[in-house]
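Page 47, continued from p. 46.
Same chain as before, 490 aa.
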Amino acid sequence: MKGEFPHWLIRNNTKLYALYLHNSSLSGPLQLPIHSHVYFSDLDISDNYFNGSIPTEIGVCFPSLNSLNLSGNGLTGGIPSSFGKMSQLTELNLSRNGLTGGIPSSFGKMSQLIKLDLSNNHLSGIIPQELIVGCSSLHELILSNNSLHGQIFPKQANCKELSRLLLDGNQFTGSIPYSIANCTMLAMLDVSDNRLSSSIPGWITNMTILQILDLSENNFFGNIPSSFGPPFISEVYLSKNRLQGPLMNAFYNCFELTILDLSHNSFTGRVPEWIGNFPKLNYLLFSHNNLEGLDLSCNNLTGKIPTEIGNLGKIQVLNLSHNSLTGLIPQSFSNLKQIESLDLSYNNLNGSIPQLTQLNFLAVFSVAHNNLSGKTPEMVAQFATFENSSYEGNPFLCGPPLSKSCFSSTLMPRVSEEDKKDHKKDGGFMDMEAFYVSFLTSYAIVLLTIAAVLYVNPYWRRAWFYMIELSLTNLDYFLVDNIPFLFRCY
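Result:
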């Protein structure tokens, strides 16, 4: 639909209570009826081409408005103070417009306001204290992607019903104020992509409802508090800050974690053992830090070892022992040029040991007590220092330092069918067993086909026996003619 806003439709229908014109091609300024319409409660004109400013009389025209969506247009100017007269307003969405100016304090008069979305505009200034104190019923406050600055929350706050606070993509400075601790129902806190600069407050741990915490792309510094993390937290984003120090027991009891992003910081020490305690963890990002080790031993890890671990070129310690890992040792482990300790013992790994003799810093190596087969790595460089204990518990391994010779006829490597497929993909051994079976099967099919043809077709049968008889006759003549000659040669 094209044209201007149909103010006549509202003017001529005094009992109209809702008008939805979203996602059309309406344009021009937003012209409203002159008289007040007490029944009108819902207006959605989002995703059109309206321009100009929001009419200052909108609060007088629609005193009982419950839901207003003006997003996705080209509106400019400020937010009119008449919004403060909408005592029945429960939802206001002005996102994705071109609104400029600040947030008016008249929002604080909307005591029944439940959701306020002013995201994706050009708003500036600070968050009015009247908004945080007066809107006691506010459930969602979304101010993302504007140019707001100052403290993210006033010292006084009365938002006990607030469940979602999204302030990302602004220019807020300072710290996360303690007043947010009063938001006991907060489930999502996103203050990413701002200019906040302080340590991470420990009281966030006491926010028992919090599930999503995003503090990324700020200037937070210092250590993560010990035992940090609310009990039901599922997503934590702390990347691109100035956090440092060891991780210790920071997220020790966060069993609901699905995403943990600690990348682009200055964390030091070893990767903590509690990483293995998260059964729901899907994404774990530790890149661009100064972490030294990766110890995942004594857990319940199953499946194959990811080949991507071979991309951790600066890792120094890798311990995957005492798990239930299966499959092959990845060839990509040959890329771990800085590794000093590699322990894969006490798993169910099979196949052969890849060539790792170029790992010049390797001082500790163990693949003991698996189902590995074939020859041990050549006794050169660092591998010349490893003893029998590095390979024990693998009955089908052979070669030094083991006493079992690789030329023993009783040595039968056990390789699963799935691993044979993996070896074929890597250009490994040929499956001789399958070759013999296919060859004998093909040979039998040829013989049976010839027999069937001779049995069914008399002509071919006579030709077959004639060919056999002719061949035998020629063979007899050959022998008669050449045997005396052979005797004469001697």
